[in-house]
């Protein structure tokens, strides 16, 4: 009976996240307890940290007639402008001419958009110190997708990693590129592999000009392995943080791929960001109690905040979803923070970006 329920939950999760018209790699037909990672250390209660933030889901003002689709991609540039990559008013950009990349000013006013016809499934988002915009296209359909795209702030395509519309597992090709980040010297890191137990869970390394330099990471649940590397961030010491989502932890590596540590206290991370003060923000959009997809009992969904210096969580913004066990995802999946400590959470299910500000005393 447990396996039957688990299989049903897995199927519902896959259906909820599958983009219309795009290739959706299938997961395993059943999930058994022995294949799932442990739920994490038995801390007294991982959900009782203070909140201290208020949420605003109506901050961003879209142009007349424009509807925001599902989004897991939000980032902030050096001017404090907020960039969002949404899925063309739906959960996929396949066959759409809508410009998925939008930028808003500090007051939430729409400025401009671009990128129509270039992507299938906008997923991971990053803005480098030169304010270039990096976007991962995590699905392949109709001869498109499966790339990492670098744009100038005015929307000019500067670099494309991967072969458009062609899946690959080695070198300059991707199966499901989830996230991208660059180091201080311009080295590019791409996380590849969105479907668990398919043998693709790797971090691919490129020179600033796009030359393939190598890769690391093996799929699995043991310490030092990764499964569904869903987001990336780099701290002030140059350590690479991986949202090791399927394993319910943040895994930490050197830029050469040496494993450093793994932290389970930040929940089941879909998105991570590290600010200039080395504060880690982790968006948990999937934790659930039932065995199956999202299994992470005792951890509630929401945004956890803590320091990368000691790995301790100090704050928690709960997801307002009243019954998360009934759905595969809710709340923030992508996450970003500006220089004033304002947090932005990109939401797949709700098809919006929430803005979190510190509550006034």
UniProtKB/TrEMBL annotation:
It holds the Pfam family NHL. Residues 1-25 form the signal peptide. Keywords: Glycoprotein, Repeat, Signal. NHL repeats lie at residues 213-256. InterPro entries: 6-blade_b-propeller_TolB-like, NHL_repeat. PANTHER family: PEPTIDYL-GLYCINE ALPHA-AMIDATING MONOOXYGENASE. This is 6-bladed beta-propeller. It comes from Sandarakinorhabdus fusca.
């Amino acid at each position: 009976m447990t396996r039957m329920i688990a299989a049903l939950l897995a199927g519902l999760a896959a259906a909820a996240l599958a983009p219309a018209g795009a290739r959706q790699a299938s997961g395993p037909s059943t999930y058994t307890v022995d294949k799932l990672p442990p739920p994490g250390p038995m801390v007294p209660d991982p959900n009782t940290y203070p909140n201290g933030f208020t949420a605003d889901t109506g901050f961003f003002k879209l142009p007349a007639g424009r509807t925001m689709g599902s989004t897991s991609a939000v980032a902030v540039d050096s001017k404090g402008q907020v960039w969002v990559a949404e899925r063309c008013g739906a959960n996929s950009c396949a066959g759409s001419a809508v410009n998925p990349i939008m930028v808003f000013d500090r007051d939430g006013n729409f400025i401009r958009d671009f990128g129509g016809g270039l992507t299938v499934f906008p997923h991971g988002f990053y803005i480098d110190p030169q304010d270039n915009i990096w976007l991962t296209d995590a699905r392949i359909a109709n001869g498109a997708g499966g790339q990492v795209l670098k744009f100038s702030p005015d929307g000019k395509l500067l670099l494309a990693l991967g072969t458009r519309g062609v899946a690959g597992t080695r070198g300059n090709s991707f199966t499901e590129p989830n996230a991208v980040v660059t180091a201080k010297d311009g080295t590019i890191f791409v996380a590849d592999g969105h479907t668990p137990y398919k043998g693709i869970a790797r971090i691919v390394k490129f020179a600033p000009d796009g030359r393939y330099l190598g890769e690391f990471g093996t799929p699995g649940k043991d310490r030092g392995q990764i499964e569904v590397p869903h987001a990336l961030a780099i701290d002030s010491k140059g350590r690479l943080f991986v949202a090791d989502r399927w394993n319910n932890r943040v895994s930490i590596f050197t830029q050469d791929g040496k494993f450093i540590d793994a932290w389970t206290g930040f929940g089941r991370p879909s998105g991570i960001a590290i600010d200039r003060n080395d504060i880690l923000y982790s968006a948990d959009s999937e934790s659930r109690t039932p065995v199956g997809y999202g299994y992470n009992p005792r951890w509630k969904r929401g945004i956890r905040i803590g320091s990368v210096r000691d790995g301790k969580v100090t704050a928690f913004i709960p997801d307002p979803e009243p019954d998360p066990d009934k759905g595969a995802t809710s709340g923030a999946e992508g996450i970003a923070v500006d220089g004033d400590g304002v947090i932005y959470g990109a939401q797949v299910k709700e098809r919006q970006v929430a803005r979190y500000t510190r509550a006034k005393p």
